[in-house]
Amino acid sequence: MHQMTEHRGDISRRTSRIIGLAIAASVILVPMAAIGIWYLFHADQLPRVKQAGYEEARKKWRAADIQNYDLELTFEGSDRPKKIYVEVRDGEVTKCLENGRVPGQQRFWDDFTINNQFKMIREDLAKAARPGGFAVKSNVTITLHGEFDPTYGFPTQYWRKARGPTPLQCKWKVDRFEPVVGDGADKKGK
Questions:
Q1: Which one, of 175, 173, 169, lies nearest residue 77 by Cα?
Q2: What is the DSSP string of 68-129?
Q3: Mapping DSSP to helix (H, G, I), strand (E, B) and coil, where does residue 40 land?
Q4: What are the average pLDDT values for consecutive 10-residue runs of the chain, which has 190 residues?
Q5: Backbone torsions φ then ψ of 168, nearest 5 degrees
Q6: Hey, what's the torsion of the CAs at 125, 131, 133, 135, to 10 degrees?
Q7: For helices 114-129 and 51-64, what crossing angle results, to 10°?
Q8: pLDDT for the residue 4
Q9: Which residues make Cβ contacts (< 8 Å) with residue 189, sequence separation at least 6?
Q10: pLDDT at res. 186
Q11: Other C-beta atoms within 10 Å of 13: how many?
Q12: Among candidates 155, 188, 132, 182, which has minimal Cα distance to 75?
């Protein structure tokens, strides 16, 4: 009888330890899982681009009148991410690198200037404003998200977010923007 009571005590202690460990694990793992799930759905959230915000940013960019700058950005389209470097002098691209190499066709160099970024956003806003503007299947939704630099107005991030089967998704993030002053650079010192 004494052995049986001792055996029940061992089982009771083991059960208590297991329950205690389960509670401790739950206290730690449940919040971690909740944070992970939140991050999964909200990590890449950018505010929606609205016409008024676009216009305000465009006005700032025009007022800044920066004609000479170096720009580095990460671009993601239908293929793998690309690191882009663009050198603009007197409003024209003088150098462009894609993943450290000169792109095969020079006609793509202008695609990454600030003015052409604004052009792409303007065209996307126009398409988004009319039904069927993106000419995609009905099971595809496209939303426009982005942020603009508070000083100069240029797009710091932009995301044409597509849900569903389409190659229309694209995204870029400015990693570095530097106005250039001096030798052939902006006379206003911007």
A1: 169
A2: -EEEEEEEESSSS-EEEEEEEETTEEEEEEETTB--S-GGGGGGGSHHHHHHHHHHHHHHHH
A3: helix
A4: 60 76 67 45 74 96 97 86 94 94 84 93 90 72 92 96 77 96 54
A5: -80, -10
A6: 150
A7: 160
A8: 55
A9: 181
A10: 44
A11: 10
A12: 155
Q: Tell me, what's the pLDDT at 30?
A: 56
* Strand 82-89 with 170-179, pairing: unpaired
Tell me the C-alpha distance between 126 and 33, whole Å.
Answer: 40
The answer to whether the CB of 79 falls within 8 A of the CB of 88 is: no
Instruction: Report d(CA 86, CA 175) in Å as an integer.
Output: 12
Two structure tokens written together for 117: 């970024």
Please count the other Cβ atoms lying within 10 Å of the Cβ belonging to residue 37: 10
pLDDT at 104: 80
**pLDDT computed for residue 26 by the predictor:** 67
Across the strands, what pairs with 179?
69
CA 40 – CA 34 distance, rounded (Å): 10
Query: Of 155, 141, 136, which is closest to residue 49 (Cα–Cα)?
Result: 155
Compute the distance between CA of residue 169 and CA of residue 49 in angstroms, rounded to an integer: 15
